[in-house]
Task: structure prediction
Amino acid sequence: MIDERIYQQFCEIGRDLFDSNMISSHGGNISVRLGDRVIIKRRGAQLGRLKPHDLIETQIEKNDSGVALASSELLIHRTIYQMTPALAIVHCHPRTAIAFSLSRDEIVPIDNEASYLLKKVPVIWEEFASGTPEMAKNLATTLQSYKIVFLRGHGSFATGQTLDEAFHWSSTLEESCQIALAAKIINEPFIEYRGMSEGYKKW
Result:
């Protein structure tokens, strides 16, 4: 039986992701690590309308009876937990950030908050963008150095000690991309206002 407090956390973050237009009706995924086990969204469940039976608990290292109903991206979440100190993962499909990921290898924020919190977000690419061991290892390796990583054309994977923290990085990235898009539309010369601004590109 999954703790009611964990269920409430999943419900709140899942609904926030949907209300923020960072996932479609059935898109995205979230999970938490509890020792040698992981709790993850059920395959096909709607993050914005989670029910208690939509949370699946299974082992991190090997399959058990829970794995049959778990998300198709369970492998990715397991690999990240195995290779990083993360205790929570938020995977979503932020629309503006997806658009930016199609034309660049890293997303470097221009706004103050995301510059401070994220510095830059690497954009990685795999031929098959969902559920392969190669992609899982690539994501987990990159997340050893970054809070959030973007899979080109697909979405972001953010880690944290809590779901709230991972959601924070995810929403900060999308807000930053929306600001960058607005600046492009305004199309006026950018006035650099940040001290040591070159460091954001090199970090």
Remarks:
- The chain has one domain: 4-187+196-202.
